[in-house]
Amino acid sequence: MKLQKLLRATCVLSVAFFSACSDILDETPNAGYDKDSYFESADKVEMAIMGIYNSISDYRHYGWYEMALHGSDDTYFTSRTHSDNQIHDIVHYRLNSTNEWIEMLWQLKYQGIDRANTVIEGIQGMADYEEDEQLKVLEGEARFLRAFLAFDLVKYWGDVPFKTSSSSSYESAFGARVSREDIYEQIIEDLDFAKTYTDWADATSTPERVTQGAARALLMRVYLQRAGYSLQQNGQLTRPDEGTRHTYYEAVINEWNSIKDNGYHNFHDGGYVSLFKGFSADVPNSKESLFEVSLFHSQGNRNGGAWGIYNGPQVAEPTGISVSESSNYMGRANGFFYTVPEWRGFFEDSDVRRDVNICTYRFVWDAENKKHDMQERSATSWYVGKWRREWMSEESRNKNMNYGDVNFCVLRYADVVLMAAEAYNEIGETAMAWDLLNSVRQRAGATEINGANYADYYKAPKVYDLPFVPDADEQGKFRTALYWERGFELAFEGQRKYDLIRWGILKEALSLFGSNSQVNKNNRNAYPAYQNFISGKHELLPIPLAELQSNSMLDGKNNPGY
Fold it and tell me: What is the DSSP string of 178-227?
């Protein structure tokens, strides 16, 4: 059963519980569930954990709004440039502290963390906590979710208020900034606990629930991000010293070895095309997919997700049909995101990832014949293609014009392989790094690459030369290769922008692509991120103005440049 269906079955109890124990406007709430008496069985704990999942599955969180934070990078942008105080201002780097979506995302991430804190406290206070292994598994799940959301806070806002105790009053909800290094330590502690007590996935598992592989994969991502550049409160981009970075890379490799030695996670048996068609069709896949945010639309509610609807090829709304006929058609998709078209030419013709990543057509409605027709688009209007209405199951694709049931995959095996490859290269084991990178290319049908033929595939005229990535030695060549391969493999999946930030080259990449792309020719300027982006500012988001006004411990000080 899809997790969101389980959420629907338990959300009345879990949300009622959290309304009672976490109503920070009332120290003695009158609702029917009390934290001190609620945690009396593993079944009750599981219902409470569903409340944490519910926070990340909210349509305003990973269902839709989170999508805005991933762009713009060097691969895509939104199709509209008007100011809206929401998605377009975020993507085009015109955002400010009153942005409505930024404020909602801030609230939902803290809501999820506070729910996790409540659950962890409740579990640890249970009478049989020390002896009950199932409680430890459930605690591991709650700790993973807390770490997952805390990592979002650090990536997006840097040093932020953070605590591991639940909020019992209005005053206790607020706090001063905590160093991101201290938050990282708690994230790692939580994920170490999760990997110790949760089970490995198998063929019967769902990637919608936390497993040991997910915990280890997220640890890899955390260590890599921590080893890279981040914007400090003084407006400077800094990264740890080389010795500390080496320690983090070794930690990445340790987690990789555990995943590899377990042997279950691997590339999807059906290949890259089948993998993404399966994501849209809601086909379970716990082998390559290590963790997904579960999204499900139920009629009469504004929930579900917008994957494949707002970031897929445009589909015109069917008109002139009866309600009974509607299930025969795809519904509607807005197509808000366009790809930077030059990427399509950077792929080899044999690389199957090209036509998955970049969709060159849309569907228009033929009212006379009551059918959708495929229509090719000009290169400046090509769509993100990894999620599509046409690939959705008949059950889900027409339930709602604006939302659907497509999960968002947060962690998948190909990303894990490339993270391990990066760590090996950074500690000087570049031969191993090439082997891992080539395993990803092999699945895609692309040519095997090494130091000898590297220039044929990662230098002009095949791709852009990267003046900001020195490639005079073998490590530098691999870093250049990784720049392109993480784009080919993982574009639009939420990691690209944060890869470029931790590598310290987001401004440079935006400038290279923005100044060369045909979408900005003839004064159209549809992809203005490179002009708007300010280094030393836009690597972080602004703290919402409402939070600054409410939380006196922030001293009215926003992130640099805001």
Answer: B-HHHHHHHHHHHHHHHHHHSPPP-TT--TTS--HHHHHHHHHHHHHHHH
